[in-house]
Design brief:
The chain has 10 helices and 15 strands. The relative contact order is 0.16.
Length: 334
């Protein structure tokens, strides 16, 4: 079978190679013909950072495909079923998620940049009915992060307001989820052309943050001085101060991204005075994903897909992702 490996980190260390086929499924295991993955910022960091992995690593944390063999003791899955991976394979349920990436595919352990894999059946969930593998592969990281941010942690209700930052996969899923649940959405981007596309997806108000660097105050103005109930904060230190301004008193801010860096100053006095809730999170559990997929089927939401790349062109896919030109998810077809 074909697989991509990363030798030590750095896009120049990506290498497509032939590898032995996956082992036959044992007790509780399934074999999956992987058809697609999708790129996340986490994958880009792992692939582009020298020394990010200590040994050859198969990258990519998202994977979707059809089951080709089922081992003994497996129930609920059959050959031919479309399935999608979970980000934390050991976090099945409960409130306490892992605090590191030691068991995350594509990082601490081998990921899904390969044609065939045998894993415990608990490492996957079913995919939404009628979805392609490329669509399903967007669920694992981006989709589930948006779901946990707004629904699991945020308790989003109809009539509330949500601010989403940029046009990456998490933000677009958050926009769609918020609109499907009856919320008002204010979206930001540095591109007027992308803002027009956000309007088409249902955003109620748009802000070009390059033209309006004090966009937190602009959000306050658009909400009659109140601020939004939820901010899906994907930027990190470069945007968090504006998110604190944008959120209402006692509002909810989900800190889920580090696009602008890993550390920085936080206006803690403002946040304290406004009694806001800042909640850091990384994706979600198996149970969260099962609930999210049920919601996707009920709401008929479909992911926003950008340009696709073949596995052999994974380096080009990462370079395109790093350019910031994409709108939505970038599938990798395997």
């Amino acid at each position: 079978m074909k697989q991509m490996i990363l030798r030590g980190g750095g896009l120049e260390t990506l290498e497509l190679q032939d590898a032995p086929s996956a082992h036959e499924p044992g007790m509780g295991e399934i074999s999956i013909r992987i058809r697609a993955s999708s790129l996340n910022y986490h994958d880009l960091l792992v692939a582009s950072t020298p020394g990010s992995v200590s040994a050859p690593r198969i990258p990519l944390s998202d994977g979707a495909g059809e089951i080709v063999a089922v081992g003994p003791g497996v129930s609920g899955f059959s050959v031919g079923d479309m399935v999608v991976s979970v980000f934390f394979p050991d976090w099945q349920d409960g409130p306490d998620g892992p605090s590191n990436f030691a068991r995350v595919p594509g990082d601490g352990i081998d990921g899904y940049a390969r044609e065939l894999i045998t894993v415990p059946a608990s490492w996957v969930t079913g995919a939404p009915r009628g979805w392609s593998a490329a669509e399903a592969a967007t669920i694992t990281t981006a989709g589930l992060t948006a779901w946990r941010s707004l629904v699991v942690n945020g308790g989003l209700k109809a009539g509330e307001s949500v601010a989403v930052l940029g046009t990456g996969g998490v933000s677009l899923y958050a926009l769609q989820l918020a609109k499907a649940m009856g919320a008002r959405v204010i979206a930001t981007s540095s591109s007027d052309a992308k803002l027009e596309r956000l309007t088409a997806l249902g955003a109620d108000e748009m802000i070009n943050y390059r033209k309006t660097p004090d966009w937190g105050s602009r959000i306050r103005e658009l909400t009659d001085g109140r601020g939004v109930d939820h901010v899906v904060e994907v930027g990190g230190p470069g945007t968090l101060a504006q998110s604190i301004i944008a959120a209402r008193d006692n509002g909810h801010i989900s800190l889920i991204g580090v696009l602008s860096g890993f550390s920085g100053e936080v206006p803690t006095a403002v946040m304290m005075r406004q009694q806001q809730r800042l909640h850091g999170l990384i994706v979600g559990s198996h149970r969260h994903q099962t609930a999210f997929i049920a919601a996707l089927e009920a709401t008929k939401i479909r992911p926003v897909i950008d340009q696709s790349f073949d596995l052999a062109d994974l380096r080009a896919a990462f370079e395109y992702q790093a350019s910031g030109k994409h709108f939505g998810k970038i599938p990798v077809l395997i």
